[in-house]
Amino acid sequence: MKRLILILTILCISIINLKSQSLQELQEYADRSYNDQQFKESFKLYERILFFNDSITSDDFFRIGECKRQLNEYDEALYYYNLAINQSGADSIKANYYIKICHILISNERYSKAIQSLLIAQQISNEQQLVRINFLLASTYFLVEDYLSSKFYFNQIIKDTNQLSSLFSYTLRKYPNSKKAFWLSTFFPGLGQFYLGDIKDGVNSLLLNTSLTLLFVHTSYESSFISSSLSIYPWLHRYLTGGAENARQHAILKRKKNNRLILSKIINLYPE
User: Fold this and answer.
1) pLDDT band at residue 66, thresholds of 50, 70 and 90?
2) 195 assigned to some structural domain
3) CA 184, CA 245: separation in Å to the nearest integer?
4) Is residue 217 part of a domain?
5) Containing structural domain, residue 217
6) I want to staple 193 with a disulfide (CB 3.0 to 4.6 A). Which of 80, 166, 170, 198 is the partner?
7) Cα-Cα-Cα-Cα dihedral sign, residues 222, 223, 225, 227
8) By the 8 A CB rule, do 156 and 135 touch?
9) What b/e readout covers 98-117, taking b as 16+ CB neighbours within 10 angstroms?
10) DSSP 105-162
11) Cα separation of 126 and 137, whole Å?
12) Do 251 and 176 meet the contact criterion of CB atoms below 8 Å apart?
């Protein structure tokens, strides 16, 4: 009986050692694939490690997140970055993971969540990280048009405050105004497009809506108001509201483009 117990004990130890050796080899292979930028293969290997190993490190979770980011699977990347944060003990490492999370959130225009993560990272960052976090906060606040907060954080990292103030003065114009473009085209077809400098679309909208209005009046006079309301008005309403909405959307895109141009000039003042 004692001999049987001894054999079983030796067998268990051998299995454990074999498993440990196998996991170590798998880890080395996964790390090597990751370093060679073979992210799809690397993720599969890390996934196997996750299945067999309960004591995976924050660095491994981070690498899995990086694999997912490189494969453009952003939600899964965020999931693994957050696991890395929960697993990590050092604040400076956590701050780096939060910065990675924010890069994904900003690139996907999830600005509110990016700001929340950056404010958390700000509390646990070291001095060098804080500069980067303030830069990201300033840029993100600018993108959501919170110019007061944006300027506050840019002032922390940019020395040329006069040039900075000059560039921020352009944001006070709030041009173009999407609501203004919409209502101008609602009350006078094409006027919103003219306001945006889009002469061609403005003329087209004006001619089309004028033609439909004249046709509506003519049909009402020659036939009946009910007849023109049923046959012409739906088209007139469609093109009138469509033109106003197009003007609004064009204004939003143009303003976003203008703001990004100003932001790029501000960023050029930042000595990285």
Assistant:
1) very high
2) yes
3) 11
4) yes
5) 178-267
6) 198
7) negative
8) no
9) bbbbbebbbeeebbeebbeb
10) HHHTT-HHHHHHHHHHHHHH--HHHHHHHHHHHHHHHHHTT-HHHHHHHHHHH-S-HH
11) 16
12) yes
pLDDT, tens digit, 9 for 90 and up, residues 70-109: 999 999 999 999 999 998 888 989 999 999 999 999 989 8
**Nearest-angstrom CA–CA distance, 206 and 133:** 49
Q: How far apart are CA 258 and CA 252, in angstroms?
A: 10
Tokens for 170?
Answer: 């352009």
User: For residue 131, how far is the Cα from the chain centroid?
Assistant: 21
Give how many domains the chain has, as a whole number: 1
CA distances from 133 to 11, 67, 84, 114 (A): 53, 23, 19, 11
Specify the pLDDT at position 271: 65
Residue 10 in this model has a pLDDT that exceeds 60: no
- The pTM of this model reads 0.73
Tell me whether residue 232 is in a domain.
yes
pLDDT tens digits, one per residue of 30-60: 888 888 889 888 888 888 888 777 677 888 8
Q: 232 and 215 in contact (C-beta within 8 Å)?
A: yes
Helix axes 233-267, 161-169, angle to 10 degrees: 170
